[in-house]
Design brief:
271 residues; 6-stranded mixed β-sheet; globular; D-Maltodextrin-Binding Protein, domain 2; alpha/beta; 3-stranded antiparallel β-sheet; 20% strand; PhnD/SsuA/transferrin family substrate-binding protein
Length: 271
């Protein structure tokens, strides 16, 4: 099948890393008997527009918008990071970062300062952060921060904001963070992790509605088998990737539960 596009923008942290993702996608789609065009889609173009493209064949999508049904997609497979905290599972978490030289030793030390978040449909950049903050919020202290800078859109803007001191604390997708630390360590060196949130199912490669069910099933199977292929190890090393696990929309239900808990508590956004 031709005429559809593929993309790995969410974890394309450097040109080298994006080239590796493109290589994986080209091989996986070929094994599934498909021929998609790789579509460059750099930030800050809205990911929502990518996910809703009528010609979407395959792209990364965060689990929270999958659960929210922000686009008509089918989850196919999620990456298994080759990182100790992943434990061989297709999971990720949010690293709550501060400047390396800052005096903060606990997350509570940042309260009264300035926090940042990315977009309201992000699990790693919004929902997980809000869920963690909720347990420290109280009727007597409904707001934890002096100022919150939202709608920063990308993880890179969180990282840069913490590094330059314009925000005191913010959430980073821990897999994104690890990839950047591996390939551009000078960018992550100015920050450190205070704590990390509980893991949830990692973002998935999803298929758009233009891809027939039978072709989507072949593509999901090709992702699941990728780590056993002789071409995989060099890509796995570059991408800190052990392989892929099958996923369903139901695997992201916890993100909705966290959202409902915060809204029921009158805490729609981090504050």
């Amino acid at each position: 099948m031709t005429g559809l596009v593929m993309n790995a923008r969410m974890y394309a942290v450097t040109p080298e890393v994006e080239a590796a993702w493109r290589g994986v996608l080209e091989r996986v789609t070929a094994e599934a008997g498909l021929a998609f065009e790789y579509l460059p889609y750099p930030a800050p173009q809205p990911l929502e527009d990518l996910w809703r493209r009528p010609d979407l064949g395959c792209a990364f999508m965060c689990g929270f918008p999958v659960a929210l049904r922000l686009a008509d997609v089918r989850p196919l497979a999620a990456p298994i990071p080759s990182l100790d905290w992943a434990g061989g599972r297709a999971v990720y978490r949010s690293d709550l970062i501060v400047r390396r030289e800052a005096s903060f030793r606990t997350l509570a030390d940042t309260y009264g300062g300035v926090a940042g978040w990315t977009v309201e449909h992000s699990q790693s950049g919004f929902n997980a952060f809000r869920h963690r903050l909720l347990r420290d919020r109280s009727a007597g202290r409904p707001s934890l921060f002096r100022e919150v800078r939202g709608h920063l859109v990308t993880a890179r803007r969180i990282l840069d904001g913490v590094a330059d001191g314009s925000i005191d604390v913010g959430p980073l997708d821990a897999y994104w963070h690890a990839l950047l630390a591996r390939h551009r360590p000078e960018l992550t060196r100015p920050v450190r992790v205070l704590e990390s949130t509980p893991p949830t199912t990692a973002p998935a490669f999803v298929a758009g509605p233009a891809l027939p069910d039978e072709a989507a099933a072949r593509l999901a199977a090709a992702f699941a088998q990728a780590s056993s292929r002789p071409w995989f190890p060099p890509f796995g090393e570059t991408l800190l990737l052990s392989g892929f696990a099958p996923v369903r929309r139901e695997d992201y239900a916890v993100t909705l539960a966290w959202d409902e808990e915060a809204r029921a508590a009158g805490y729609p956004v981090p504050a």
